Amino acid sequence: MPKNNRELPSRAAVIDVVKELRSVIFPGYFWNDSAAKVFPEYFAGYRLNDLYDRLKEQIEIALLYAQPELEQEGAAEEADRICAGFFEQLPEVQQRLLKDVQAGFDGDPAAKSKEEIISSYPGLFAIYVYRLAHLLYKEEVPYIPRIMTEYAHGKTGIDINPGATIGDYFFIDHGTGVVIGETTEIGRNVKLYQGVTLGALSTRQGQQLANVKRHPTIRDNVTIYSNASVLGGETVVGENTIIGGNTFITESVPANTKVSAKSPELVIKKSRSAVSKTDVWDWQD
């Protein structure tokens, strides 16, 4: 329940900011406002000013709720500082996202164009939301970073904790079921397929490990295929490594390595039309 007669940040308001910032990061793709077409040179500035005010309001609400001792004036000043830093970093975020788009295009032969990736790929959308949320996570803004990434999780099935550290040229192909934990570190040019878990080993210590590295480190130029699980804070996957599908890894893997699971034994039965009488139970009264 809300405490101290203070409200939580609005999930709907935060999600609206995420949606509308996409039209600024990727201009021309998501603008629905007719003014964007008529006055494109002014529209981005207008939209940014509006989004600044709306995000600042939600950050201030979050700070006041999380810190009952904080006064309104102090919360407003801190929210303004955080919001200013966030918007100052948007050009850098845009450049990183364009590298992610390039990684998607280079890594997916089914992609017909970069425009297709920007406008339709769920992996890129989840990465876009993560890169915004990570900026606020680093500033220790409560609630809002997780609201952002859980929105993307619900939309795409891709769960990226805002605390994860992810390098440039990152690509998630297909994406459904991907989990990236809070203390995961991912280098440059890493590609993940659906169902990959970069997680923590199960523990009963819970909150005692809140500030401990619990998730793996993935070095540069690594590909991890579908349904692989890489677990543990001490687990490091070296650069230029390929992790095969359906593998379960809880210890470090050297660089320049290929890891695969043994193929399971296949049991092939005859089709129903080919089953002989001797293969069928003869039930008698």
UniProtKB/TrEMBL annotation:
This is Serine acetyltransferase. GO terms for biological process: amino acid biosynthetic process. The keyword Repeat does not apply. Pathway: Amino-acid biosynthesis; L-cysteine biosynthesis; L-cysteine from L-serine: step 1/2. CDD domains: LbH_SAT. InterPro entries: LbH_SAT, Ser_AcTrfase_N_sf, Trimer_LpxA-like_sf. Keywords: Acyltransferase, Amino-acid biosynthesis, Transferase. GO terms for molecular function: acyltransferase activity.
